[in-house]
Amino acid sequence: MELSKDLFRKLEDNEKNSEFIAVQSRTYLQDAWIRFRRNKLALAGLVFITIMILGAIFVPILSRYTYEGQDIANRHALPSAAHWFGTDKFGRDIFVRIFYGARISLSIGFLAAFINLCIGIVYGGISGFVGGRVDLFMMRVVDILYSVPEMLYVILIMVVLGSNMTSILIGICISSWVGMARLVRTQVLSLKQQEFSLAAQVMGASNTRILFKHLIVNSIGPIIVSVTMMVPSAIFTEAFLSMVGIGISIPMSSWGTMANEARELYQNYPIEIIWPIACICLTMLSLNFIGDGLGDSLDPNKK
């Protein structure tokens, strides 16, 4: 009788949950963010890009200097409390021009990536989902566009429309979306025969819903990674065009324009070319780190 009481005694409250293991429920994006934060380089890149975006928004507004304001008596000044990055050959404050240039360079990079994302998803998704002769024709158009160098498109558009932000965007976006279209097509071709896609068809879902609500959504990981790689490519294209003198028109400043102006005097004033080149390099490096981090965090196989 005593043994029976020991076996079936009532547990105290502090003993009831002694073997309970609680697992916090997380969504896919929450889990991806936690894994992204573990990548120190990707997190550092995100912090740098955030600082550059905030600086591009607020520094030209809050500073007492303007990107075009000249002070001939204070040309080629070294970094000081008054001018943190010094001044250029016209006495313009380099610190303000750097962040004003960030507006143009980052805007071109992110806008070009967004436009290429939209065109590539629609074009590649339709091509892969419909298949057959439609896919064959659409991919041959992609091959034709891909066969012509991207820089040639940009230069021709700028000759016709002039050296401005719009012409650079159009030139970059004419053919840059073909890589995204090929990626989306490949993902759709591999996913449209899987069980969840067939189940959606059986349940009567429309082709548009299947494509955009099921196939594209399940391809979002590689798509986001590809977008992050498009941004530095567009920034570099704009910087290269401005640096060779056919980009953004003076007095507007982009990082490439500033590097082109400082190139003429780099032997006497090398510090003036360091700032725009450093911004271009660090921005591209940060975006590449972010792309690598997103690739690891969004890949379910690496969970």
Can you put this structure into words, describing what you see?
This protein is mainly α and 303 residues long. It has a single domain, classed as MetI-like fold (Orthogonal Bundle), CATH 1.10.3720. It has helices at 2-7, 28-38, 40-62, 94-130, 132-147, 150-161, 165-191, 195-202, 207-215, 220-243, 255-263, 271-298. The protein starts with a helix and ends in a 5-residue tail after the last helix.
What order do the helices and strands come in, and which of them pair?
Blueprint (H helix, E strand, L loop, with lengths): L1 H6 L20 H11 L1 H23 L31 H37 L1 H16 L2 H12 L3 H27 L3 H8 L4 H9 L4 H24 L11 H9 L7 H28 L5
Structure summary:
The protein is 69% helix and 0% strand.
User: Can you write the helix and strand succession as a string?
Assistant: HHHHHHHHHHHH
Give the number of domains: 1
Shape: flat
CA distance, first residue to last residue:
53 Å
Radius of gyration of CA atoms, rounded to a whole number: 27 Å
CATH architecture: Orthogonal Bundle
What about the largest sheet? none
Helix content: 55-70%
What count of helical segments does DSSP give?
12
Specify the CATH class: Mainly Alpha
Strand content: under 5%
- DSSP strand count: 0
Structural class, by secondary structure, is mainly alpha
Give the low-confidence spans. Answer: none
